[in-house]
Amino acid sequence: MDDKILVHKVHGICKITEELVINGEDFLKASAIDNTSLVIYCPKNKKDLFFRDVVSFDEANKILDYMKNLKGTKIEPTKKQRTELYEKLYNGNLYDLAYLNIALLRYQVLKSKKKQGLSTIETKVLKAANLMLTEELSLSLNKSIDELNVLIKEWANQYGE
């Protein structure tokens, strides 16, 4: 089997490395691109529940436009908000990852003005959302992750809270 690149909802960009049979059932074996020690076994008939194709060049550009023009982001330090952060992080939607990047970067600036930092959960979500978003956009657009991060930070600073 040729290695196929797909996106896992939780682990981001993965490479399907093998098709195998376990206890009579067809499985796919995948490894995360950013953590090759992470191996994922997925029943082949449930692939679409956990994996999706990498976003197209055109869709990736639409996501960049969305981030560039995103206004009115709001993050609050509540339990409900923390739950929503995780839901946005792990639902597999790149627009939600884009929102998290911009909103949490803006919130980080707001908190730094009060000589505070993001909470542990907010920091974890921002780091994971940024990694998943920039890896996929980098692959789709053939741009470096550093180049994308410069744009994301610029857009986050464009419309403050």
How would you describe this protein?
With 161 residues, the chain is α+β, with helices and mostly antiparallel strands. It folds into two domains: 4-52, Thrombin, subunit H; 57-158, Up-down Bundle (Methane Monooxygenase Hydroxylase, Chain G, domain 1). It is 52% helix and 19% strand. The protein is built from six helices and five strands. A five-stranded antiparallel β-sheet has the order 4-3-2-1-5. Strand 2 and strand 3 (25-32) form a beta hairpin. Helix 3 (79-90) packs parallel to helix 5 (120-141) and helix 4 (94-113) crosses helix 6 (145-158). It is globular. The model has no long low-confidence stretch (mean pLDDT 92).
Summarize the structure.
The protein has 161 residues and is an alpha+beta fold. It has helices at 47-50, 57-68, 79-90, 94-113, 120-141, 145-158; strands spanning 4-8, 12-22, 25-32, 39-43, 51-52.
